[in-house]
Every structure is written in C-alpha cells, then in structure tokens.
Amino acid sequence: MSKEAVITSSRLNCYGTRVLTEGVDLEQYRKNPILLYMHRRGSRGDMPIGIIENIRVDGDFIYGTPKFDGDTEEEKIIAAKWERGTLRMLSAGLEILEWSEAEEHLTKGQTRPTVTRSKLTEVSVVDIGANDDALQAVRLYQNGKLLTLAQGEECEHLPLLKSNTPTSADEEGAGNSNIQNTFQMNKILELLGLAATATEDDAVAAIKGLQEQNAALNLARITDAVDAAVAEKRITADKKEHFITLGKKSGVENLRTTLSLFTPAQKPTDVIKPANQQTNLKWGDCTGEQLEALRKENREEYIRLFKEHFGFAPDIQ
To answer: Are 203 and 194 in contact (CB under 8 A)?
Structure first.
C-alpha cells in the first residue's frame, strides 16, 4: 500500500514565502487529482503517472496518498522508489489567488508576502522540495504561468518585502553578500536532505546519488521509446541496444523523433491483395521474395498469376 505524505503546509519555504493551508481551495483538485513527476506535463509530452487518493486536511497540513498507474517502466521505477523511501517528497502546484503583506501573516525570515488564498491544481512526486515539513515542496503559479522566485529576484505577482532597517551602502552590500552566501549553502544542504553540519563530501555524495537516480529514470524512458518502436515494427528487436545507446547520447526527445521517421515494416504479402479482390498485379511485377511468400501463404493467387503469365498451371504440391 502506498505511503501517505504531506502535500503542503503553512511553513516558510525556500522562496521566502509561505502558503496558508486554510486558504487552499481543494474542490477542483478533488475532481481531477492528477499526480505528475517533477511537475512535467504538456509541452514535453509527459503523461500523469497516477492520482492522489485520500486527500485530507489535518490542522496546518494537507495530506494525500499517491497511487501510481505503473503503465510504463518509468512509473514502475518511481513507484518502487517511493515505497522504499528513496523518493519521499510531494510538491503542490498552487495557483495564487490572493497574498498579504500584513504583519499578522508574516514570520521570521520571510522575504515575500504570504499567499492567503490559492487553488491546488496538481501534485508531483519530486526528488528535492522547497519546504521542510515532511520533506514537502511547493510550486507557485499566477494565471497558469509558473513564477520564478529566485533569491532576491523581483516578481510583480509576489514581490519582495521592503526592508525597514536602513544601513549604509557598504554595510548593506557586505551584509547581503554574507547572508546570501550562508543562505545558499544552507539551502543546498537542506535541499539535499542533509544537516547544516554536513561536509562538502557529504553534499557531493548526495548529488551523485541523485544523478544516478535521474539516470535510471531517463534510461527507463529511453527503453520505453525503443520497445514501442519494436512493437510498431519500426525497428527490429536486434537493433534495440543500438537505439538505447543512441538515446543515451542524444536524449529521449531526439530519439523519439528519429524513431518516428522509420516506416513500420510490411510482410511481402502485405502489398499483394487476396485472390478474391480485383487487382492489376502481374507476375513480372513481383519480386522473388514476394512470389515465394505468395506460394506459401496464398497458393490460389500464386497459381492464378503463374497461369496468366506462362499460359499453364504450375506443377506444385
């Protein structure tokens, strides 16, 4: 049975804002509770990997349980990693409806207004999130457009809060630089799921682990694309490893484009109509391979063409 996890809470996230749980509208999402991987959809051709079941609100937390489809090798890998705990983060895709700079809505360390009303539009399984509660992440949208909220970056839909502490230009520059460097280092460790006391070697090892995980998922997508091409008879099974290697080098999208250029193979007799259909096909129009296939698979048509061409019936058993 799949594990329940936190979808969102009111905790301060790495964007410098927070989303009030009490203001999240769940009505529409309950009707269409799609589950994505890494918020991929639409333009990249990615399909939902499942749904979220048992959506519930408990105090400051919104919970849900992923249910994976398991239609593709990639979905099976994601589901297995979720059950083992390698993947354990859910990320809420939230449409911002209202935000507030009122002091009662702000908390220590906050750099952007609080989102007081929002609408849940999708939930994703992700490798690294933006909020510490139950390893939970969040992604914010405005009018369907993803907001980029990098540290210190202005955004008209969710602007930076104005500082009330005046400093000299030099003090402000040096202070901001030190704060930003410390923030970035701590955030890197946090996103990797490491403690603030972790070493550089710990961070490198964690990053390598994520790279290996993403490589496995990418290989699964490449393998699915090649298997589909074999099933459609665009390529033969003995060429499978060649195209998997090609996909690793050029990427899955380029691989899919290349495979789509191949015409599905036909049997020799696919181009010859059965004897009970009118045809203008002549003996001389057929290749030796087609005639041999016709002799084995449609003897009546073979005899008709032979007699028409040579004037007598063939002596075949």
So the answer is: yes
**Owning domain of residue 28:** 5-160
* Number of domains within the chain: 3
Instruction: Indicate the pLDDT class of residue 62, thresholds 50, 70 and 90.
Output: very high
Query: Is 110 a member of any domain?
Result: yes
Distance CA 89, CA 136 (A): 5
Beta bridge partners of 141: 95, 146
Range scoring the smallest mean pLDDT among 24-28, 178-182, 187-191, 282-286: 178-182
Name, in order, each residue with C-beta under 8 angstroms of 184's C-beta and a sequence gap of 6 or more. Answer: 151
Paired residues of 65 in beta bridges: 53
Q: Mean pLDDT across the chain, nearest whole number? A: 80
Q: Is there a single domain that holds both residue 224 and residue 284?
A: no
Q: What is the pTM of this model?
A: 0.49
Asked whether residue 77 is domain-assigned, the answer is yes
CB contact at 8 A, 293 and 268: yes
